[in-house]
Q: What sequence folds into this?
């Protein structure tokens, strides 16, 4: 659709392309909710299944609104959006008939904008540094007479992209760790409170090794990456307080399908 708009009506391309992207954002929000609901319905503990209530249609509208705010603010609304998008998911989660709650005020006690500022500014600075170095070196590596780039030049471009990805992974680690801590801080189940004990160094190690697994195996070890990430999270999850688990009644059986849309967009549910 984007190609057709550019080819047939370039002067109207923006009017055609914008609705397409809005629909895509809406579908991504819808897919995130339905995938979380599907995952919850397939998760059992002590013989009792989890469930998710709420409307994926309403969640999708919130998702598209927050994504537009992210674009308008050049990404600076992202930390607030993370918490607000988590609220309807965790407020709608049930363990049998026992209700989870998400206290956004408790979640806000864990700061996000400090590590996000490091990530945002570091990403911008590193981008211009890498672009400047790449342009300077590319001029020497490009053949003067050949019409196509050399193999060495192509290898250099991919190496530069990989190096920048490594830098971004390290810069984003404090922010990713803070997201885990702030979301866990907001989640309650009756008298139980949760927390994540994870620092930026541990998170950086996880992100870098996951990046290596996916990159150097051309994506074949993506399932391994997802499994080790889940193990990493569960090992660092802590809880305190009491819940009468024995009194939990079985939840209704969940939907037969629902993870495919998020999978098509490459969105992880964990």
A:
């Amino acid at each position: 659709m984007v190609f057709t708009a550019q080819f047939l009506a370039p002067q109207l391309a923006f009017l055609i392309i914008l609705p397409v992207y809005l629909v895509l954002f809406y579908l991504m929000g819808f897919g995130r909710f339905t995938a979380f609901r599907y995952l919850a319905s397939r998760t059992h503990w002590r013989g009792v299944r989890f469930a998710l209530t709420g409307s994926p249609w309403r969640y999708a509208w919130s998702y598209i609104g927050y994504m537009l705010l992210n674009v308008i603010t050049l990404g600076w609304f992202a930390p607030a959006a993370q918490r607000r998008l988590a609220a309807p998911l965790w407020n709608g989660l049930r363990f049998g008939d026992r209700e989870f709650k998400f206290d956004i005020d408790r979640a806000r006690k864990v700061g996000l904008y400090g590590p996000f500022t490091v990530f945002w500014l570091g990403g911008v600075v590193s981008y211009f540094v890498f672009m400047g170095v790449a342009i300077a070196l590319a001029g020497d590596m490009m053949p003067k007479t050949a019409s196509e780039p050399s193999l060495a030049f192509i290898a250099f471009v991919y190496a530069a992209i990989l190096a920048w990805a490594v830098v971004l992974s390290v810069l984003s680690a404090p922010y990713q760790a803070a997201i885990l801590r702030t979301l866990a801080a907001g989640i309650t189940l009756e008298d139980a409170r949760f927390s994540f004990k994870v620092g930026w160094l541990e998170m950086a190690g996880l992100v870098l090794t996951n990046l290596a697994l996916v990159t150097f195996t051309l994506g074949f070890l993506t399932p391994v990456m997802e499994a080790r990430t889940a193990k990493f999270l569960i090992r660092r999850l802590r809880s305190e307080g009491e819940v009468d688990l024995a009194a939990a009644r079985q939840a209704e059986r969940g939907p037969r399908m629902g993870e495919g849309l998020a999978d098509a967009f490459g969105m992880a549910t964990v």
